[in-house]
Amino acid sequence: MPNGSLDKWLHPDQETYNGQNNLSLVCRVNIAIDVARALDYLHHDCHQPIVHCDLKPSNVLLDSNMTAHVGDFGLARILPQLTKPNQSSSSVGIKGTIGYAAPGKRPTDNLFETSLNLHKYARTSLPDHVMEIVDPMLLRNDNVITMRQLVNATRLKECLISMVKIGVECSIESSRDRMDMTKVVRELFKIRDVLERNHN
Fold it and tell me: What is the pTM of this model?
């Protein structure tokens, strides 16, 4: 793919970083939409549901238009078709990159006080501190003016909070409690619409 992997855009080498390869917030949301639509297709529209099992930035490839494509299906698993509404399927034995499928132990648990995990932390303190966790790359170069104009805008803050909440909801330990990919796609389109209205 002409623009390589998402990983190279999010974590550029110091040697090859030229200051021009920053991803704007709208571009990042568009990439998230592309990936979510691909996963939604795999989970719901294939003859049999497919679980990727190794989704990470290095497996998201960007074409010349910065459209994201999910790659590397080496660890993907086909799930048996569920015929009854109350029938369940187990993903025991599905392997992939640590962190994609929620592991039994979260490495972040030790960083928080007793009984406070990453998900509780995000729900309680995210709204007040969202701008502190924004990727600093969004605040560099050509994004500086736009971001500074929007930093205090309620819409931008709400979009960032919504994005992180989607990420948290998609990483809940129990797969049954995770946000469905169809809903993820819908929510991401809403976020993009708000950002584009705010940008124009």
Answer: 0.71
The domain spans of the chain are 1-80, 109-199
- Out of 54, 72, 177, 193, the active site residue is 54
CA distance 62 to 3: 5
CATH for the stretch 1-80? 1.10.510.10
Residue-level pLDDT at 200: 59
Q: Is 107 exposed, middle or buried (0-12, 13-18, 19+ CB in 10 A)?
A: exposed
Can you give the pLDDT at residue 192? 93
- Collect all residues with Cβ–Cβ distance below 8 Å to 187 and sequence separation of at least 6: 162, 166, 179
Tokens 């034995």 found at: 93
Block means of pLDDT (10 residues each) for the chain, 200 residues, are: 91 69 86 94 90 90 95 87 49 44 38 49 59 64 51 71 88 85 95 79
CA angle 146, 187, 200 (to 5 degrees): 25
- Residue labelled with tokens 């990483």: 171
pLDDT value, residue 136? 66
Query: Contact, 77 vs 51, CB < 8 A?
Result: yes
Query: Is residue 109 within 8 Å of 117, Cβ to Cβ?
Result: yes
72 within 8 A of 59, measured Cβ to Cβ: yes
Is 63 tagged catalytic? Answer: no
Reported in sequence order, the residue ranges of 64-125 that DSSP labels E, i.e. its strands, are 68-70, 77-78
